[in-house]
DNA sequence: GACCGCACCTGTCCG
DNA sequence: CCGGACAGGTGCGGT
């Protein structure tokens, strides 16, 4: 893969009516979107082959200190509709290394300690602007109407979130699909969600790896920098 | 006029981008659209002469047991903007026959007991799918982008509602114009809205006749089958 | 600025 | 118990 491989996730944009978000100064995106097509809603999304290696990943810790979705993954399943069959809670050691689908090189992007709103009825996850603009850049071409981001948890279970910019609140959010993730993973406020991406794959999917978190978070901050030894 | 007169309301379709609603199996629509043109929003609507006889009608009961908009109608006014001058609550006998514009043959289509949402801030009325597809069929030609349906209350006052299909919720709704009706008629949750159409007129307008409802609805059902003697 | 219109979204309920 | 229908929401643009 070429060095355009900085694209952190597989996505495609769709044209829309809304205004543009603040342009990300990062120029390290673009390209690498395989097989995009327009879906019913008018968003673009992508189909792609099973990842050649692990793409980016999202891990989420909860206070229960156990690894969620620990059973061996069903890697490579990328149908539109995720089966809802793997909300098992098989701890695999809890505070272990939590490398998700094992042995895969990942680059840590950022973490967020989810707020009550993130796991509540609003059905959205606010992505801190700094990280959103760095890792999930939206611009006038990719923006507008939102993106369908493809994620994967550590079992390889696919998750698809709509990602967009809300002009009214000037914030970046994951919306559609997020609530299902919250429910299945039994995410609670205070849990940590960790975004990672595959190092090798240029535009790989983003994995979701659910994992438990230390209840005691690093003191006095909610800022996402809890890169505890990943 | 001819027997294609089964078209229950005067309407015209507009092309749009969204996907089609489930095709109505009813074949008793089509034809009979006079003088359609496309408006600014891209919907098609129709202008037509003042009804030769009463078309379909929509009656709405409220729990106050009085006939709303009982003063003699201003028949034949079909400007785009209805005057807001007739929200009088002159009972004309309350639970009487409520024949609306008197002596006109009407075919009852269906009733709906409006929900809080139907009369609340959402500014829309959900049309139960079964009735929507039977009486207000949208297909690929008439669908897509919505319809402007012309109604008339029992005074002959015209009402124009946008009618469309929401893909995301798989439901049919009246949107634009509905809130004005709710406001003028002082519709409340639990009130009944009755849709009727003229028997004689092939594609007549739909009348809106507001009338009061029995507070006591038929037991244990919310299903619209309260065809109480109309 | 408030409200309306519009297109989404989702949980819940019910057959 | 599963899927469809829909009640109750959202953001957002336009007026």
Automatic annotation (TrEMBL), chains A, B:
PROSITE patterns: B3. GO terms for cellular component: nucleus. SUPFAM superfamilies: DNA-binding pseudobarrel domain (SSF101936). Keywords: DNA-binding, Nucleus, Transcription, Transcription regulation. InterPro entries: B3_DNA-bd, DNA-bd_pseudobarrel_sf, LEC2-like. Residues 44-56 have a biased composition (Basic and acidic residues). Residues 110-212 form the TF-B3 domain. Residues 8-27 have a biased composition (Low complexity). It comes from the Eukaryota. GO terms for molecular function: DNA binding; DNA-binding transcription factor activity. It is found in: Nucleus. Residues 1-57, 70-105 are annotated as: Disordered. This is TF-B3 domain-containing protein.
């Amino acid at each position: 893969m070429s060095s355009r491989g900085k694209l952190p996730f597989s996505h495609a944009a769709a044209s829309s009516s809304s205004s543009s978000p603040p342009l990300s100064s990062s120029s390290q995106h673009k390209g690498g979107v395989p097989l995009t097509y327009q879906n019913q809603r008018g968003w673009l999304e992508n189909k792609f082959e099973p990842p050649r290696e692990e793409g980016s990943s999202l891990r989420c810790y909860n206070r229960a200190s156990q690894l969620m979705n620990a059973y061996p993954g069903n890697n490579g399943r990328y149908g539109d509709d995720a089966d809802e069959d793997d909300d098992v809670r098989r701890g695999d050691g809890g505070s272990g290394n939590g490398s998700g689908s094992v042995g895969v090189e990942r680059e840590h992007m950022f973490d967020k300690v989810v707020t009550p709103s993130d796991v509540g009825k609003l059905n959205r996850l606010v992505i801190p602007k700094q990280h959103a603009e760095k890792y999930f850049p939206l611009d006038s071409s990719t923006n507008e109407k939102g993106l369908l981001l493809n994620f994967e948890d550590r079992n390889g279970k696919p998750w698809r979130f709509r990602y967009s910019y809300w002009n009214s609140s000037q914030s970046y959010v994951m919306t559609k699909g997020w609530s299902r993730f919250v429910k299945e993973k039994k995410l609670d406020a205070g849990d940590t969600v960790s975004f990672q991406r595959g190092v090798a794959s240029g535009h790989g999917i983003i994995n979701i790896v659910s994992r438990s978190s230390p209840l005691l978070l690093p003191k006095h901050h909610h800022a996402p920098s809890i890169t505890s030894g990943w």
